[in-house]
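Question (not urgent): is this output format expected?
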Amino acid sequence: MHHVPRLSVLIPTRDRRALLTDCLASLRKQSYQNFEIILVDDGSSDGTEVLAPTVDIYVRTPPLGVGHARNLAISLAHGEFFYVLDSDDWLSDDALTLSVTAIDQSGADMVFSDLNLVQDGVVVGRFGACVQTASEVLESKRIPHGSSLIRRSTLNVRYDERLRSAEDLDFLLRYLPGKKVVQTPHPVYYYRLHDGQENQKAIQSVAAREIRSKYAVK
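Got this back:
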């Protein structure tokens, strides 16, 4: 009988072959191993397809954006839970163990982790990613990152494929109402800071303001 993994790790990617190699290496070292890896290649032109044999499911699409790539990965997932992992980031060895333990013990719908911020291979800070309610996300000045484990049966929304920035924030504002959220005991997600990211942060800030105004109580 074919084994059905309990957890699906979803990785959307475009033109990040070298960084994706590090991301996948962190998954091979996980203490929790009952998972599948679903890699959606959003129109890469850097030879990302050579990594297809190292994952369970590889799908290549035209460059349709991260929202489309994430939604497609969700539709292919078999696990009771799924974890969205950006292809330039990576996880600590105990990330999946701690996340699954937290959701099992609490009966929660979603498990967040704080982020370790990494620049040039060195941890330079920590970002508090954990939020409890949609209203807290709405009021927050920070854009929550999607470093989370989600119970697939509770998923009642999808990523907005029209958005080109802050799609995580938009997703959370629609998903979180009525959901129970817990946090891992320490940061398990390593978030890579890139050169030239200030411009991207400015774009995200504008997008976040627009999204928050859309969901704000008038």
